[in-house]
Amino acid sequence: MTGTLAAIGAGLAVIGAGIGIGNIGSKAMEAIARQPEVVGDIRSNMILMAALIEGAALIAIILSIFVK
Amino acid sequence: MSKFVAILKKRYKRIIRMKKFVVPFICLFVIMANTFIVEGAETHTGESENATHNHDECSCHHEEKYDPGASAFHHIADANAFHLFGDYYLPLPCLLYSPGKGFTFLMSNAFDMHHHGSGTKAIDGYVMVHGSVMRVKQEGFPMDGEVEVSCYTEKEAADGKMSYQVVYEEKCYDLDKKTSYDGGIMGGGVTSFYDFGITKNVFTMILAFLILFFLFRKAAVSYITRKGQAPKGVQAVIEPLFEFIRNEVAIPFLGSKYEKYLPYLMSIFFFILGLNLIGQLPFFPGSGNVTGNLSVTLVLAVIAALITNFSGNKHYWQHVFNMPGVPLPIKFILTPVELLGLFIKPMTLMLRLFANITAGHIVIIIFVSLIFIFGQAGENLGGSILGGVMAVPLTLFMMAIELLVAFVQAFVFCILTASYIGAAIEEHHEHH
Which pTM does this prediction carry? Predict the structure, then answer.
C-alpha cells in the first residue's frame, strides 16, 4: 500500500513540475519571438529556471520513493 | 513521374544517412541485451538459489522469479568487481578494514565469483554477494582463512527490510550490510567493516580522469604546435565546449572575477560530462554509474557549497543574517529561511544530478527487462521476441534522451554553481 501512495506522490510532483516547466517554455518562446536577438540569454536562463523547478520536483520524487 | 523518383531518391539518401547512426545504436543494444540475457539466464539457474527460512537447517533451493526492480537497482549499484561478460569479472583490489581484525587486502577474484557476482569462498569472514563485499556478523562462522560457502539467501526482517544470509555447512549466518560509500543515505548505514578498495565507481572515475587528462593535454599541446592555425582534431572538440562554458556561464554570472573560478567550473563540467558519457556505455570500460551515485554527487555538491561560502563577501553574509531594508519582525522569519537555503542549494544540486542519471539508467534497464517480463524469464520464446521488439525502439529512444541529459545535467550543475558563486561575490547592491 505504501508503494502505491508513494507512486501517487511522485506523480503529483511531476504534474507540478510539468506545469512549471511548461510555463517557462511558453514564456521563453514568446520572448524569443519578440526579441530574437537575445536568444542566447533567454535560452540559458530558461534552462536555469527549468533546472530549479526540476530540483524541487526531484526532491519530492526521491522522498516519495525512499521515505516510504 | 521523374519528380516522384527524385523524391524517392532523396528519401532513400536520408535513410542511408540515418543508417550511420542507427547501425551503431543497434550494435550497442545487441551487446547490451546479450550481457543481460546471460545474466538473466544466471538469474534463472544460479541467483535464484534461495534457502528455506529455517534457522537451524539451511539449504539452497530454486525459486523461479524475475524481479525487474531488484535487477535495476543491482545494475546501477557500485560493485567490488567489474563485470565483463558471462562469468568473467575484472578483479579489483579490495582493502577491507574491520576494528579488532585490522586490514585485509585481496583482489576480488579471490572470492571465486560465479552467478551474478556472488562468490563461492569466504575469506577472513568476508564474502562477495552480488558483486559487493559483505562481512558475516553472526557468531560461529570461521573468521580466519578461506572457507567454501554454498550460496546466499535473502531474509526479510520484521520491519520489511531485506538482508542477506550466507549458507555455510547447511547453516545460515547473518551478513552485515554492504559498506556504504553512499554514506548510509541509500539504506547502507554504519557497518562493522570499512571498504577502502578501488570499486567499480572509483575505477571509472580514474578512467575518466585519465581520458580527460590526455584529451586536454593534447589540446593544450596543439595550441603551441599549431599556433595561429585553425583548431583541428581534439582541439576542435574541446575549444567550442570550453568557450561555451566561459562565455555563457562564467562571464555572465561571475563578471570580472571569472578567471579565478574558471578552472573549477571547467573541471566540474568536464568531469560530470565525462562520467555521464562513460556511464552511457553499456559494456566494459563504461557501465559505471558514477554520477548516479549519491555519495559522488554529495561530494561534488559539498565542494560547490564550500567554494561558494568561502568566497562569500560581506554583502552575501549580510543578506543571509541581516537582510537590509526589511523590518525587524520579518528578519526573524527571513534569517532561518536564508540559513536553510545555504543547505538546500547544495542539496538540490546533489539530488538533481543523482536523480536524473539514476532515473535514466533505471528506465533503460526496465525497458530491457521487458524481454524477461514478457518471456517469463526465458520460458516463453514468443513473449521474449515480443518484449525484444518493444524493448529495442524504447531503449534507443531512452539512450538518445540520456545522451541529451548527460550534456544538460553537466551544464546545469555548472551554471547553478556559477550562479551561486556569482551571488556570493557580487559587489554592489542597490537597495530599493
Answer: 0.79
